[in-house]
Amino acid sequence: MLNRLVRFLICSVLLVEPVAGQVPDTAKLNRYFRALDSTRQFIGSVAIARKGVVLYTAQAGFSDVAHHTRPDSNTSYRIGSISKMFTTVLLFKAIDQHLVELGTTLDKFFPAIANAPQITISDMLSHRSGIRNFTDDPSYVSWNTKPVSEDSLLARITRGRSVFPPGTKAAYSNSNFVLLGMILSRVFRQPYRVLLEEKIVRPLHLAHTYYGKTISPADNEAYSYHADGEWKIEAETDMSVPGAAGAVVSTPADLVRFADALFNGVLLPAADLEKMETVKEGYGRGLFAVPFYNRTGYGHDGSIDGFRSVLYHFADGDISIAVTANGVAMNTNDISIVLLSAAYQLPFSMPDFHVPALTASDLELYTGTYRSAQLPMKITVTSNGKSITAQATAQAPFPLVPMGNDRFSFTPAGIFIEFQPGEHTMILKQGVGVYNFSRE
Length: 440
Description:
The protein has 440 residues and is α+β, with helices and mostly antiparallel strands. It has helices at residues 26-38, 83-96, 121-125, 150-159, 174-188, 192-204, 252-263, 270-276, 332-343, 360-364, and strands at residues 42-50, 53-60, 77-78, 210-211, 225-228, 230-233, 248-250, 288-292, 295-304, 307-314, 319-328, 368-371, 378-383, 388-392, 398-404, 407-410, 415-420, 425-430, 433-439. It has an 8-stranded antiparallel beta barrel. Helix 2 (83-96) crosses helix 5 (174-188) and helix 2 crosses helix 6. The chain is globular and about 65 Å long.
């Protein structure tokens, strides 16, 4: 459910084309995930599939840290905004049944929302509605763990101001997909959770995919955590809050099967998929374009509480990868690169998480105020001689934990920063977003 503004390249260097169709180097992948496990960098599960066949799965860490419960391939995780891919499929099914159109305007359902007569279904699917993202509300963390009625959630979204005229630009907003879920329930006359089950889960035999509830380890569901020396449990967002924007629960194996069905015409006709993959200002309809070397894939990432997730499909090689993490102390983009590299028989290196001791003079190299042309804010980095803290414009300060080689993290928000002190610059990464900053 994190705000997403920009999608950048996962990798940008072209390599010689490998021979597709081979089995990934599972022994090396196993060593990689053992390294992440032993250094407490990642807890969760991953999968690689080709042509709908799962070639590799791995799990690391614990699904329940307090009871030292290890996950298995059937352990379910909250997938956050990957839910938007499921919602988009359901929307196109409604369109194909002539229940709505891409050009249907929001005033047909929710006339009280600002600019509703000018906002189309298409605008909402591609984050071009201008509807304020309700999870950006400073009060959000004070109520997101409590059950909320649809009327109450609708009222919160309705009270939010429009941030730009519809269709004029794009800005990520969970409000769009919460409203789309409500629209689906109205036009199909069934709850979203029933539509998910009947139109996607059951036809694809996704045994471990469903609308979320209170987390239950007894049902092989994972709790989520953030890294703070040790894994500390996160509070649970009540699933009535994210709804169609982020309430789906799944496994990596189910997710890659879903991706295979979507991108190979099982769930939707080719014309619908083409509309989903049409990207403007960084956003498709319920999808993002994801470059990897000279290839372009499509998919989505997700973030809710301590969970981080990724689902990407590349038509070149018919490759799908999925990551469902319930705790990370590293950038999940690095894991995606490793999975895709293994799938395409490309080299990848084993991680080195050695963290050198930093002196006060070392830390001073990173301090200063940084500005980015990509984001409307500054980040000020300060040092107390023992550690450094970052603070974005109009936001609370947050500690940066050293990861080695000028790299730092703030894992509760999935933020990773790489300083380049010799150039007076830094790179901030969140999800697969990459933002370049220069020191003033």
